[in-house]
Amino acid sequence: MGVVARPADEVPADDTDAAAATPVPILLDERVDIDAMGGYGFRIQTGDGLTWAEQAVASGPQNEVTRTGQYRFLHPDGTVHLLTYTAGVNGFLPVSDMLPTPHPLEPWHIQQIEFAERQKAEAAAAAEEEEEGAGDV
């Protein structure tokens, strides 16, 4: 069975979830129109504590648009969720204490990585010497 969406004005009167929904007031809604280079900006704040601000600016030799922004809200347990980000030619780069991070490397991990890098470098040097030697024949 598929899911079917319907306009809000067609929600049955006995739909208690829809009837119980309380509209969230918009406390701030500031917008900067899109300029000729694709730049824009906005700031939004709602009555339930959500804030979101974003700015986009064209820069660089090809006028790539880079967006920077942040949003903030409260989790049901009261924990503040704050995320700042940059998005552009290098992708979406979020920063937040709420994002998972890799486990820190132990000293022996780093030693193993360095050992593997040395082995790769030695193998590449040996292959290069072999190619040079084959060219002399």
Features:
single chain, elongated, 25% helix, 137 residues, 35% strand, alpha+beta, six-stranded antiparallel sheet
Q: How are the SSEs placed, and which strands pair?
A:
Elements: H1 16-20, E1 26-32, E2 40-46, E3 51-59, E4 64-74, E5 80-88, E6 91-95, H2 107-135
Antiparallel strand pairs: 1-2, 2-3, 3-4, 4-5, 5-6
How does this model look, in words?
Keywords: Cuticle. This protein has 137 residues and is α+β, with helices and mostly antiparallel strands. The protein has 2 helices and 6 strands, in the order αββββββα. It has helices spanning 16-20, 107-135; strands at 26-32, 40-46, 51-59, 64-74, 80-88, 91-95. The protein has a 6-stranded antiparallel beta sheet, with no helix packed on it. Strand 2 (40-46) and strand 3 form a beta hairpin. The longest helix has 29 residues, at 107-135.
Give the helix proportion (percent range): 10-25%
Strand count? 6
Strand order of the largest sheet: 1-2-3-4-5-6
Instruction: State the end-to-end CA separation.
Output: 73 Å
Flag low-confidence runs: none
Shape: elongated
Main structural class: alpha+beta
Q: Please work out how many helical segments DSSP would assign.
A: 2
**Mind telling me the C-alpha Rg?**
27 Å
Name the beta content range. 35-45%
Mean pLDDT comes to: 86
Order of helices and strands: HEEEEEEH
**Major β-sheet, in short?**
6 strands, antiparallel
Keywords: Cuticle
Protein name: Larval cuticle protein LCP-17
GO molecular function: structural constituent of cuticle
Pfam family, one: Chitin_bind_4
